[in-house]
What we know:
CATH architecture of the largest domain: 2-Layer Sandwich
Strand content: 15-25%
Distance between the termini: 38 Å
Number of helices: 13
Amino acid sequence: MKANNFHVLVDSSEFMEDLEERILEAKDRVLIQAMTFEADTAGMRLFDAMKVSKAKEKILCLDAYSLANINDGWAYGWRYLTNSDHRKEVNETRRILKTKEKFGIQAVVTNPLGILGIRYPYRNHKKVMTVDDVTYIGGINFSEHNFAWHDFMVKISDQEVVEAIVEDFRLTCSKKNQSFIYTANSTRLFFLDGNNSGKEYVELFGEILKAQKSVTVMSPYVSDPLLSKLLDLDEHVEVNIVTPRHNNKSLMKNGLYDRLRDKKVNLYEYGGGMSHLKSILIDDSKLIFGSSNFDVVSYYLEQEVVVVSENADLIEDFKKIILEVDLEKSQKIDLATIKKNFRARVIMFLLKNIVAFLGVFRFRKT
């Protein structure tokens, strides 16, 4: 479904088919940035396309998370010693990153973990791909378990937006992060550096606080400070939260449910498997999407890119092919039946304060 300069791609199959086709036809540049890249069928599909691409410039920019974590588990640990498939995937991922120049691919790894992993919390969480004059922004990483999750990307061909994304990509490759808001037509880009983004987050949350009728949040990990902003909205503003029933981070789900007890919020459990999709729809006229999960970790520690768009066609497509479909697969939860969860409350309190502490006393080096 074309939406002027925006095209909604639902789930990894639709996204990867489109991305792969463009990479194979690329002439000038293939610029890929992701937090996770693994040498499984998903990662190799991307790498194989980049290998044969005739583009003049091919760059694969990854966060150091990809060297430490495979399939949502530590790369080097008990599984590495006991599971041959895991060990093969870890070794193959590292081999690819060592041999990429053979295929004309430049690989950049950001945010090194540091001694004893002291900088592990500080991640570059962006998922942005630019091929010639088109950019993809959203939440999909290049690994089999990420490909299995429900998610979406938005393909953007607005050249002002594309070039702003490319500039940020090149800054990331030179180990620089920016906090900056860029405006192009009906689109605002929020570049968040995971360090000095307080002013930008005030602006971003300000979009939500302007809501007159409704705010619908879709994310697996909704937490503060966004959650408090939602609960502080005027009573006449309808607040809807859609989050997966089968969540890979149950502590975040439990913490969310405990906070929503007896609140005037519509909570929906998505039953179509794990959903990694993240978006905020405001008054059916403004859509926020990008790499951020809108959670406490993103707010304090991670580099993100978030798009705020008022493109009417994009919003209409999003509602038809994502929101309405997902709500049909969701069950509304009776918040009055949610029991107090003291353990979840304590864990979320500790998480919030530990992450806030790490955000102030940083040990990060890009």
